[in-house]
Amino acid sequence: MFGLSLPHRQLALGSQRCSDMGSVPHRERSRDRHKSHSKDGSRSEKSVTINAPPAEPLLGDAAARGEEVQDDNWGETTTAVTGTSEHSLSQEDIVRITKDLEDSVGLDCRRYFTLTLSVVLGLLVFLTPLAFLALPHLLWPEKLQACGTACEGLFISVAFKLLILLFAVWALFFRAPRAGLPRVFVFRALLAVLVLLFVISYWLFYGVRILDSQDENYQGIVQYAVSLVDALLFIHYLAIVLLELRQLQPAFSVCVTRATDGETRHYNLGQLSIQRAALAIIENYYRDFPVHNPALLTASKSRAAKHLAGLKVYNVDGEFPMTPSTGPGNNAATGLAQSQSRAMIAAAARRRDTSHNELYYEEAEHERRVRKRKARLVVAVEEAFTHIKRTQEEELKKAPGDVMDPREAAQAIFPSMARALQKYLRTTRQQHCHSMESIQQHLAFCITNNMTPKAFLESYLNPGPTLQYGRERWLGRQWTLISEASVTSGLKEGALFLLKCIDFSLVVTAKRIPYIQLSEEFIDPKSHKFVLRLQSETSV
Amino acid sequence: MSFIPGQPVTAVVQRIEIRKLRQGEHLILGFSIGGGIDQDPGQNPFSEDKSDKGIYVTRVTPGGPAEVAGLMMGDKVMQVNGWDMTMVTHDQARKRLTKKNEDVVRLLVTRKSLEQAVRHSMM
């Protein structure tokens, strides 16, 4: 609630004053003079928001909130805080900073921890067969049987299998991590535990049966080492199947809706845990969803504010409960608040509302304006592009003067279309998405690659996916997964979770793809036969 | 005018007797027929039930023998000289109507207005 009130601070006191019942007019005027706080600009009845003067960040927060005085002068006596005042820190900023701190420290710690663990495990796994082979030679070389040809053949096999295992592990595990997930990756943890147990059990066996008894049969020992490497390759196969192959087959259809403007997309995912599904969805979000534009949402908010405005509830019985309505045991006050809100809803419903009319005409007008600006823009850009011509090598030698590289060419033709483009972006409220620098860069890019004016304009006429815009809009580190089920549990039918970003959230629901029963029907090619439809008329 | 298979067809019919007119070497009756069990019943504009494959009068030449005898466009021909016309092919119907050795054809035709007239007179 705190960050959402409007930044301008002057209240139109006229509406409150003229609806005032005139209970204590003198008191309110003297209070006005003493109070240095400014008033809330929003005209909604419900917002009890608190204003901190610039020097005092959040101290006024909890204290002033309790003063919900149920009298006619509440409009002049409450104070409001805006989340966007210049000097104070809003609550959101503080939350954001602490979260960043703990994120950066926490994630790095965990990442290095897992990295060291995996490196240790890898070294253990690779050095074990070599140790098995080398230790007999070191510890009891005299007793050892000579290694025949079969035995030496096994050496080659061990060497190549270890090489293959090395490449396979590098391919599967040594990739740059593309995300940090909130909980541990269950399958990887299980596999690591499995490998560890496996290697430990082999070492135990080796230690008891071979080292203690100092076995002389070297070929047996070599075969033992080969069996270890084989089993490791099979564990790697298991890793591929569990980590990569299992979720390739689509099993769930998830519906992703952006909460602010209702953009919806559907994706097919395999059997994933909720956190991995969230990761897949976020990656698809950056590609598929048009960029989030908060400027387009203000219209509905202002309409919503106007719906309840102008209605004020008067308590004719003259009760003034001084305690906050949320105090314990204060049922009378809550009942009062509920009946007041119901009365307001009923009055708002009965009132003859012409806002639908305004919306209709406003939208038609906006549409017309956008189309006019678009026409001007297209013409301006086409004309600008005709001033530039790509020169060939021979022409370069002939007319060496005034040759430009793409950047300069872009800068040369930019001014002729800048005004039209700026006006169009303003009308469609995209002007904050594109800086002049980025527009010129894009223009140079289009000129270099022989693109037509239409291709140049495409990225401005339609809002593209988030990846198209500058990196600062990507907000990569700021996603939060909100889920009632544990995030390492798998997706189920009807699973619901939220992916929250700072400005908006994505609501994700999952449905199982139905079992498809496909049956066949054979059509004999000779069975395609036709007759004419007759309708003749004969005169007799 | 629809029929239930296996049940006798009941209809109010009008007896029309047409004298054939000699035109050159042909004997003409002065109307055109459409329909038949080998034809497409859905295209018949005169039938009530679009699965009726009976023979219908599609055109009556003005001033011809058929018009003089009182045949009207849209009539369904039920019998010709005693031969049934409700379950014949188009060609069979034509043959029955254009027998060279007959001068007169006696048709039994039915139309919707006949049934209505009977109903009104009964009420």
UniProtKB/TrEMBL annotation, chain B:
Q: What GO molecular-function term can you cite, just one?
A: protein kinase binding
Segments forming domain PDZ: 15-112
Sorted alphabetically, the keyword list is: Acetylation, Cell membrane, Cytoplasm, Membrane, Nucleus, Phosphoprotein, Wnt signaling pathway
Return the annotated region ranges for Disordered. 39-59
| Keyword NAD recorded | no
Keyword NADP annotated: no
Per UniProt, subcellular location reads as: Cell membrane; Cytoplasm; Nucleus
GO BP terms: cell-cell adhesion; establishment or maintenance of epithelial cell apical/basal polarity; neurotransmitter receptor transport postsynaptic membrane to endosome; neurotransmitter receptor transport, endosome to postsynaptic membrane; receptor clustering; regulation of signal transduction; Wnt signaling pathway
- For this UniProt entry, which residues form the secretion signal? none
GO CC entries = adherens junction; basolateral plasma membrane; cytoplasm; nucleus; postsynaptic density; postsynaptic membrane
Q: How does it sit in the membrane?
A: Peripheral membrane protein
Q: What is this protein called?
A: Tax1-binding protein 3
Q: Which organism is it from?
A: Esox lucius
